């Protein structure tokens, strides 16, 4: 019988204490791998939020505050950028595109972002991926709105429905723009970024809500047209919307009755009907915006334009490079990452110390077993190898079980982290860094097994054969 088989059978004879130790190691391994995976994915999610943008320009404030408020919708911008300054800077040489951003309003806790059509053309996330529509299209006029995927899913919104924007960024607002209802004309595909939790409206809508057009009577909004192909939408023919003029009055009334039933039945047959409208002005005459994103024809213009903007005499402005500021942000959070890593390492060490305690505690009970092995020809190094092999087997099985529990935990936590924190966890194979962590745990477990092995190495044959009272 080889040593590995003997070590396994010897451990199985003490299965209660061994299983408890193994489960402790598995939990610590799962905790360590989970913390590291969430940390890496969170960093990756932040880095993927914006891509292809060379500069972010806003009123002079802190670099990180401007990045968090304009891209991640975290915090508030203290000041705004004058529209004239935006128009002047976008005309500078080398500027390929700009995206104006106006923040400050919300809808049921979700940030409302005012922008124009360039947002859907030039904004990139992840690996320079474009925004794509799950349903509908971009807005055409000041009464249309495009929702992020999480907003539509959480609030169960569909194309053609109307929503009301609230003043302020909080979950609760006492000022609603009831006289400016917005019609949902588009729902974006999931991106795993703050875009999913954002309500997008035209700049002119923000201007009308807060400017001279605030009390203007609502304009005609688009009407629903025929269903898009390959979508299981509610049959248009059932409601006869487009045949009203050709029906008798009774039929017309009956059609309205059907429509009312449809509306008051809490949209049991909610659909994603396209809404048609005439293209109109999306910008209006805004006086100021929160920030704007910039892209250049060549990276060579980035530093030059950034310096010019930071020295702009028209008003105090700040231009930041998103990648550089993100690295600064992670540099600030480095201490938090180290604390989390230290916490998980301490848990692993405690579990390995538990294994050492178990092996030492059972060593005295196994003196007779070891003496019998010595009496049948086992040498001291056989005893040493046997106890070391037991520690290696327990650590190895603990790592395998912990890795399995880690994948199960990732699978269960994926939807919660995605919806609540915007962190997209990938159920991928272990990275080289994670494999190195498991290797370090195996090495530590082996070292822990050396202590009882050395102690047993020096046991004499008579230690276990004599009965001690």
From TrEMBL:
One of its GO terms (cellular component) is plasma membrane. Residues 19-203 form the MacB-like periplasmic core domain. The chain crosses the membrane at residues 16-35, 339-363, 384-417, 437-458. It is a multi-pass membrane protein. Pfam families: FtsX, MacB_PCD. This is ABC-type transport system. Residues 233-268 have a biased composition (Basic and acidic residues). Residues 342-457 form the ABC3 transporter permease C-terminal domain. Residues 210-274 are annotated as: Disordered. InterPro entries: ABC-4/HrtB_transporter, ABC3_permease_C, MacB_PCD. It is found in: Cell membrane. Keywords: Cell membrane, Membrane, Transmembrane, Transmembrane helix.
């Amino acid at each position: 019988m080889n040593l590995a088989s003997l070590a396994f059978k010897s451990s199985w004879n003490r299965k209660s204490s061994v299983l408890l130790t193994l489960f402790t190691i598995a939990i610590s391994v799962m905790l360590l791998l989970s913390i590291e995976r969430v940390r890496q994915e969170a960093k990756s999610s932040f880095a993927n939020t914006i891509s292809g943008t060379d500069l972010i320009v806003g009123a002079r404030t802190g670099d990180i505050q401007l990045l968090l408020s304009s891209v991640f919708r975290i915090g508030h911008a203290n000041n705004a950028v004058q529209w004239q300054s935006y128009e002047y800077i976008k005309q500078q040489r080398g500027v390929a595109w700009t995206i104006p951003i106006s923040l400050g309003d919300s809808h049921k806790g979700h940030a409302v972002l005012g922008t124009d059509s360039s947002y859907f053309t030039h904004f990139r996330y992840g690996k320079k991926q474009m925004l794509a529509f799950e349903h509908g299209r971009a807005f055409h006029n000041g009464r249309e709105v495009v929702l992020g995927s999480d907003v539509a899913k959480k609030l169960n919104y569909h194309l053609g429905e109307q929503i009301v924007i609230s003043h302020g960024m909080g979950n609760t607002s006492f000022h609603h723009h009831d006289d400016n209802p917005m019609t949902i004309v588009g729902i974006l595909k999931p991106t795993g970024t703050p875009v999913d939790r954002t309500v997008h409206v035209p700049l002119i809508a923000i201007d009308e809500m807060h400017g001279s057009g605030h009390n203007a009577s609502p304009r005609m909004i688009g009407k629903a047209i025929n269903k898009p192909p390959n979508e299981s939408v509610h049959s248009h023919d059932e409601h006869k919307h487009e045949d009203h003029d050709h029906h008798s009055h009774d039929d017309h009334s009956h059609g309205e009755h059907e429509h009312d039933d449809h509306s008051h039945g809490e949209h049991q047959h909610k659909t994603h009907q396209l809404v048609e409208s005439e293209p109109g002005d999306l910008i209006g005459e805004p006086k100021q915006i929160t920030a704007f994103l910039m892209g250049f024809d060549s990276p060579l213009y980035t530093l030059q334009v950034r310096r010019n903007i930071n020295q702009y005499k028209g008003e105090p402005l700040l231009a930041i490079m998103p990648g550089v500021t993100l690295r600064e942000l992670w540099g600030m959070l480095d201490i938090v990452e180290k604390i989390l890593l230290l916490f998980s390492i301490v848990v692993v060490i405690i579990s390995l110390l538990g294994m050492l305690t178990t092996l030492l505690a059972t060593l005295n009970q196994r003196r007779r077993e070891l003496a019998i092995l010595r009496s049948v020809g086992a040498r001291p190094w056989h005893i040493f190898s046997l106890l070391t092999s037991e520690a290696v087997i327990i650590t190895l099985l603990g790592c395998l079980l912990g890795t399995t529990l880690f994948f199960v935990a990732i699978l269960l936590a994926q939807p919660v982290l995605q919806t609540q924190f915007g962190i997209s966890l990938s159920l991928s194979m272990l990275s080289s860094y994670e494999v190195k962590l498991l290797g370090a745990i195996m090495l530590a477990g082996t070292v822990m097994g050396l202590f009882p092995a050395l102690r047993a190495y020096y046991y004499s044959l008579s230690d276990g054969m004599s009965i001690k009272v």
